[in-house]
Every structure is written in C-alpha cells, then in structure tokens.
Design goal:
Chain A: Keywords: Endoplasmic reticulum, Membrane, Signal-anchor, Transmembrane, Transmembrane helix. Chain A: It comes from Sporormia fimetaria CBS 119925. Chain A: It is found in: Endoplasmic reticulum membrane. Chain A: It is a single-pass type II membrane protein. The complex is a heterodimer of chains A (254) and B (101). In chain A, strand 6 and strand 7 form a beta hairpin. The longest helix of chain A has 26 residues. Chain A is built from 2 helices and 8 strands; from the N terminus they run H-E-E-E-E-H-E-E-E-E. Chain A has a 4-stranded mixed sheet with strand order 5-2-1-8, with no helix packed on it. A 4-stranded antiparallel sheet of chain A has the order 4-3-6-7, with no helix packed on it. Chain B has a domain of 55 residues. Helices cover 60% and strands 4% of the residues of chain B. In chain B, helix 2 packs antiparallel against helix 3. Classes of the chains: A alpha+beta (254), B mainly alpha (101). Chains A and B meet through helix 1 of A and helix 2 and helix 3 of B.
C-alpha cells in the first residue's frame, strides 16, 4: 500500500471479490422468492395437412396445426433477478416405437421480459382483450406510448383460440391418427445473475410446482379431416350477404 | 531544473504514504468495499430493482478508489523520521583512494 499504483491494484482486487459475493447473494435470493405458478391449457382445434419441408423438396410430410386456449398466471416467476421468461407450449405424443421416449415439439413460444429488461422487438406483446376499448384519439395514444407488455399484468396470459407459431411434423413424416397427444406448458426463467431454471412439477421449498399446465389427451385427425366439433367460434362470416339468399337481419337495427 | 520537475512528477504519481497510512488505507478499503457491497444488495433487494444494486455498487467502488488511491494528507500524519546523522567517529569510507566520510 506504499504507492498509488499498489493501492489501486489492492482496491480493484478486493472489488472483484465483493462483486462476486454480491452476485452470488443475488443468485441465491431468487431461491427464497416464493413462486406459485398456475396455468390451464386446452386444445381448441387441430388439423393435419400434407406439406413440404421446403419449396423444392419432393418429400411430403404431414404437419399438425394446433390452436389452443391458454390461461396462465406466471406473475410470481418475476422477481428482481428475472431478466426474461421464455415460455413455450409443447405437443407431446408417444413415439412410433414404444421403447422410445415420447416425442416433444414446440408449437408456440413467447419471451416475457422482466421488470428491468429494456424494450426489445422480440418481447411478447399480449393481444388486447376483444371487448376492451382501444384508444383511438391521438392524445391518449401518446400518453400510453410506453409499450404495455400485457393488459393483465406481468406474466399473466389469457389467450383464446391462439394459433400456433410453428406447425409440427414427426421424424417419420407421419402424424395423422396419433393418439394420446397432450399440450404442456413449459418455461425457462433466465435471471440477470444465477442459473437458468425450468418449470418444476414438484414443490422445492418456497417454489411451488406448476398447477395444471397440461391439456387433456387428444388425437391427431386424419389428413384433410373436417373440423371436429370443437366449439369453434363463428366470426362475422355468419352475417355475410349471399346472392339469392335472405338478407341477414341484425337484432336492434331493423 | 528538469530533474527537479521529474522528481516532483514522480512523487505525485507514486503518491507514497507512511506506514501508519498504509495500515489505515488497507483497513479503509476493506471496510468501505464491504459496506458498499452490503448496502448495494440491500438497496436493490428492498426496491426490487437489480439496476440499483449495480449503480450503487459501482458508485461506491468509485468513491472507494477516490478515498484510497490518492496520497491524502491523513495517510501521511506520522512520517518516520530519519536517524540523526552520526558524528564522524572513526568512520572511514574510501572511494577510489579518497576519503569521503
């Protein structure tokens, strides 16, 4: 500690030690932050179509297009050390051979940012609920210029008839008439400091296991099968005016 | 003249402090950095904002550097005095056959 250079080296050396210890404390503090995630996921519609893996391919494969409903409360996954949560929905179905483990394929995913994360274009924007009023005049839209990640709050999702991001196929190329297919919610919590953690089904201390998050079993229909009766919501096309048909009458108008 | 200037420059850069000052600097740097780490963690944890931890930690470290590295006067409060020169008593130092001491 005689000269200024030695003192600078000493202070910096101990600073690295302190920084490491603080980082370790932050990483450990994630594990004492209580978590109680819950989710429910339901199949909305599933179709199997023939397709090609890419445009010039002569191989035809079967692709499943699965839409779903998701209600999830993952707000407790966001503590001060959460950078982002990578959320995904897997379709899980038995492999063609019983000796092999079940096949898993991701049909939809989203990046949910934490509180301290700066804006990024890849962050998930939750669709606003259908019956909510969207600000139309310019003033109110200027006031709400800060991008809202979710209208329900951080980590809470209510998705209805959500279309998949990815159509899935099997390594065999055959997907129709597979039974015991399930949809399962999974996630990966990425902290600022510390280890990555995935979804847990069991309780670990104050981290409660995920409640729900698995859909009922269903079957991939045959290729080109008509939509099964899955209570598909009918849109405005029911009111379309058809040539030579009766004019639709809306209630409260005529 | 230039030697004098260089000496001054070297002294300023070297920033020597006395022995008591070195003990004090060692103790101060440990206490300050330790306190900064604890305070940074607590501030961030209470406000649930990890960026605050980062900024408090970095600011505290910068302050510690400022407090420890320059040769502040309080590090030079007990200079070690030189021994008094002995009277020329039987000391015979010969350099190239010439008597020096």
């Amino acid at each position: 500690m005689h000269s200024a250079l030695v003192r600078a080296q000493n202070v910096f050396g101990f600073f690295t030690t302190v920084a490491f210890c603080v980082a370790a404390m932050i990483a450990l503090s994630s594990f004492i932050s209580p978590q109680s995630p819950s989710a429910s996921i339901e199949l909305r519609n599933v179709q199997v179509r023939k397709g090609r893996p890419h445009y010039y391919s002569s191989k035809k494969e079967e692709y499943a297009h699965i839409s779903f409903d998701l209600d999830a409360d993952l707000s407790t996954l966001f503590n001060w050390n959460t950078k982002q949560v990578f959320l995904y929905i897997k379709a899980i179905y038995p492999s063609s051979k019983p000796s092999l483990p079940a096949s898993e394929a991701i049909i939809w995913d989203a990046i949910l940012p934490g509180t301290s994360a700066p804006w990024h274009q890849n962050h998930y924007m939750h669709p606003s609920p259908k019956n909510s009023k969207t600000p139309k005049n310019k003033r109110s839209s200027k006031q709400s210029q800060q991008p809202q990640d979710s209208p329900y709050g951080r980590g809470i999702l209510h998705l209805e008839n959500q279309r998949p991001k990815y159509q899935i196929t099997d390594i065999t190329g055959k997907l129709q008439n597979r039974t015991d297919v399930r949809l399962e919610l999974g996630w990966n919590v990425q902290p600022w400091v510390g280890p990555l953690t995935w979804e847990n089904k069991k309780d670990y201390g104050v981290w409660k296991g995920l409640e729900g998050g698995v859909s009922d079993g269903f079957t991939f229909p045959a290729v080109g099968a008509k939509k099964a009766d899955l209570k598909i919501e009918k849109g405005k096309e029911g009111h379309r005016l058809m040539a030579g048909e009766e004019q639709p009458v809306r209630k409260g108008r005529a | 003249m230039s030697d004098q200037l260089l000496d001054q420059l070297r002294d300023a850069l070297e920033g020597s402090i006395d022995f008591e000052g070195q003990r004090l600097a060692e103790m101060l740097s440990t206490v300050l950095l330790g306190a900064v780490g604890i305070i940074a963690f607590l501030v961030g944890f209470v406000s649930q904002d990890i960026k605050l931890t980062l900024y408090v930690g970095l600011a505290g470290t910068a302050l510690t550097f400022l407090a420890i590295v320059p040769p502040w006067p309080f590090f030079n409060k007990s200079p070690e005095p030189w021994l008094p020169p002995r009277a020329a008593s039987g000391m015979n130092i010969n350099v190239d056959g010439q008597k020096v001491g």
